[in-house]
């Protein structure tokens, strides 16, 4: 049986949206898939060496479970985002869910290929030295070179 | 059941039991048996799916109290 292939486009840079690409990619790799993730726009921030900027916000997210009902205007107060992020990280740890760093490392160890969007680096004046090693940089046509021949292709 | 290696995946949540199982199987040779102990209820279905897709044989899958015990034979 030919090796299956999975391509993912990761476009979001929040803590909750950081999970799906890394969980799916690491699991697919464990199932012997060949996997590539193309990180573009805010998704590219998931490849930073320092992931402390990856946060979750209760603002404009009515589905987020809160310990106490929280009016929208309260969610907008300074410090609320950091507090929500801290609480979420505590919950993630308590429930035995992997951290984003761990899943990212698991991806790299199992051969998942990361492609950083060159245009995004330029657009946001990012510096390549802020990102982890082992990334390739490219554009849309680099993505299609792999994605055009995959079994599963996801936009996250 | 006899086994060659044991993996303690207690307290770990999806997808960690599967990722660690894959890694542990990588340290065995073909035909050797890995025992996995997990507390993640989702790992019962996931372990079946993992075995089916990777060709490693799931010899047994049993709940023991609040834990789940698996025996996998490396392909």
The total strand number of chain B stands at 4
Secondary structure: number of strands of chain A: 5
Strand-residue proportion of chain B: 25-35%
Structural class of chain A: alpha/beta
Q: Give the CA-CA distance, first to last residue of chain A.
A: 28 Å
Mind telling me the C-alpha Rg of chain A? 17 Å
Q: Helix content range of the residues of chain A, please? A: 25-40%
Largest sheet: spatial strand order of chain A? 4-3-2-1-5
Query: Could you state the CATH homologous superfamily of chain B?
Result: TusA-like domain
Description:
By secondary structure, chain A is of the alpha/beta class. Chain A has a domain at 5-56 and 100-155: DsrEFH-like (Hypothetical Protein Ychn, Chain: A). Chain A has six helices and five strands. Chain A has helices at 15-30, 72-75, 80-94, 100-109, 118-123, 140-147; strands spanning 5-10, 34-39, 113-117, 136-138, 152-155. Chain A has a five-stranded parallel sheet with strand order 4-3-2-1-5, sandwiched between helices. In chain A, helix 1 links the parallel strand 1 and strand 2 (34-39). The longest helix of chain A has 16 residues, at 15-30. Chain B is an alpha+beta fold and 75 residues long. Chain B is globular.
Salient structural properties:
heterodimer, A: 156 residues, alpha/beta, Hypothetical Protein Ychn, Chain: A, five-stranded parallel beta sheet, 6 helices, 5 strands, globular, B: 75 residues, alpha+beta, Translation Initiation Factor IF3, four-stranded mixed beta sheet, 35% strand
SSE blueprint and pairings:
The complex is a heterodimer of chains A (156) and B (75).
Chain A lengths: L4 E6 L4 H16 L3 E6 L32 H4 L4 H15 L5 H10 L3 E5 H6 L12 E3 L1 H8 L4 E4 L1
Parallel strand pairs in A: 1-2, 1-5, 2-3, 3-4
Helix pairs in contact in A: 1-4
Chain B lengths: L4 E5 L6 H11 L6 E6 L4 H12 L2 E8 L2 E7 L2
Parallel strand pairs in B: 1-2
Antiparallel strand pairs in B: 2-4, 3-4
């Amino acid at each position: 049986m030919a090796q299956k292939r999975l391509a993912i486009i990761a476009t979001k840079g929040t803590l909750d949206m950081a999970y799906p690409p890394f969980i799916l990619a690491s699991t697919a790799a464990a199932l012997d898939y060949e996997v590539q993730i193309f990180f573009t726009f805010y998704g590219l921030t998931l490849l930073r060496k320092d992931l402390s900027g990856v946060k979750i916000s209760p603002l404009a997210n009515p589905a987020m479970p809160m310990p106490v009902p929280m009016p929208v205007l309260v969610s907008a107060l300074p410090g609320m985002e950091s507090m929500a992020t801290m609480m979420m990280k505590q919950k993630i740890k308590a429930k035995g869910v992997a951290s984003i760093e761990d899943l990212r490392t698991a991806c790299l160890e199992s051969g998942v290929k990361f492609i950083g969007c060159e245009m995004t680096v330029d657009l946001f004046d990012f510096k390549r030295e802020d990102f982890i090693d082992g990334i390739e940089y490219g554009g849309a046509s680099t993505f299609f070179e792999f994605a055009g021949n995959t079994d599963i292709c996801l936009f996250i | 059941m006899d086994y060659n290696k044991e993996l303690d995946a207690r307290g770990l949540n999806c997808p960690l039991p599967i990722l660690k199982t894959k890694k542990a199987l990588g340290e065995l040779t073909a035909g050797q048996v890995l025992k996995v102990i997990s507390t993640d209820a989702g790992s019962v279905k996931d372990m079946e799916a993992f075995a089916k897709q990777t060709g490693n044989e799931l010899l047994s899958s049993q709940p023991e109290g609040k834990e789940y015990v698996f025996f996998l034979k490396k392909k």
